[in-house]
Specification:
Layout lengths: L1 H44 L1
């Protein structure tokens, strides 16, 4: 039974690290998208 707990802990930690990596990538993509919208808005106004 202890092995199942250990496996659960390992899978939980890997899922948490995957979620943190995904969260940072989403934040970077959101920043790039905002910059793209700003640049496209400036081109339309020129």
């Amino acid at each position: 039974m202890e092995a199942m707990g250990l496996l659960g802990f390992i899978f939980g930690m890997s899922a948490m690290s995957f979620a943190i990596i995904a969260w940072t990538q989403i934040a970077a993509l959101r920043k790039e998208f905002e910059e793209l919208k700003k640049n496209l808005g400036n081109e339309n106004n020129s």
